[in-house]
Amino acid sequence: MDLLRSLPIGLYLDKPLTWLHKLDARVKFVWLMAFLAAPLLANPWWRLGLVGFLMIVTLLARIPLRVWRQQMGWLVFLCVLVFIITALTPDGLSVSIQPRLPDSTVNLPQATDYNYVLLDKGRLFVTRRSLELAVRISTLIFTLIYSTNLFLLTTAPEEITAGLENLMSPLRRFNLPVTEISLTLTLSLRFIPLVLEEVQNLARSIRTRAIDWKKLGLKNSAKVWLTVIEKILDNLLLRAEQIAIAMEVRGFTSPDEHLVRWHQLRLGMGDSIALFALIPFWIARFLVGGMD
């Protein structure tokens, strides 16, 4: 199994080049912050609308089905699992109801069709509060993870660091190391595939040795996995040291003295339309989303 393809976490899709790829990294970052902030104190209907909106954006961008399946498959399974567990979990309102009139009195029919308990089948007990909480948690997990993943999928690491450095440039007045932060972020994003590659190589080495885990037992199996983890850390530290030596040899002693323009930032017509779309987005958030 190829971890670099089966775990598309933080990986960039270079082809096909969609309209999301063509948007400026700063514009996409602003939209990402909007998706992260919009669910806060919003009602469940707005949260469900955000999930649908992200799916529509993915379809309109014409991202390949194989990538879409990898990006959304495991996340949908996780959110559905969280939804089911939360909906069936007691809502925490342990209120004991005592009738005001004696039991012998004939109860009058309820004036409305409101029922706090939506499903009562023995162990399957769902209330309005537990269902609403399940919708909140599952949609929040989906929105936070998938919006970030979609941002990383359609934005190259160089564009991300260049955009963040440009957005954080006013912080230079407070003597914050903006260039160092952007360079560290670039190296971190580039280091993710190296981590997956090291894990993949060690997993293949263990598989080729055909280890019988049942004969080893729990204690010996734990020793083997501790050895594997130690080997992974050693290899990653060695990779990091090699990168540092390569940068020093090329004269990268200070990011301020050796500033490299990874990407040229330009705002086009599509970026202006995307920024203008934020206005009706937030208007709909306060009119439709309401307050929780």
Lay out the secondary structure.
Blueprint: H1 3-6, H2 19-22, H3 25-37, H4 44-60, H5 65-88, E1 117-121, E2 124-127, H6 128-154, H7 157-167, H8 178-208, H9 213-249, H10 269-276, H11 278-289
Antiparallel strand pairs: 1-2
Helix pairs in contact: 3-6, 4-6, 5-6, 7-8, 8-9
Give structural attributes.
single chain, 292 residues, mainly alpha, 3% strand
Structure commentary:
The model has no long low-confidence stretch (mean pLDDT 78). Helix 3 packs antiparallel against helix 6 and helix 7 (157-167) runs antiparallel to helix 8 (178-208). The protein has a two-stranded antiparallel ribbon with strand order 1-2. The chain starts with a helix and ends with a helix. It is mainly alpha-helical and 292 residues long. The chain is flat and about 85 Å long. It has eleven helices and two strands, in the order H-H-H-H-H-E-E-H-H-H-H-H-H.
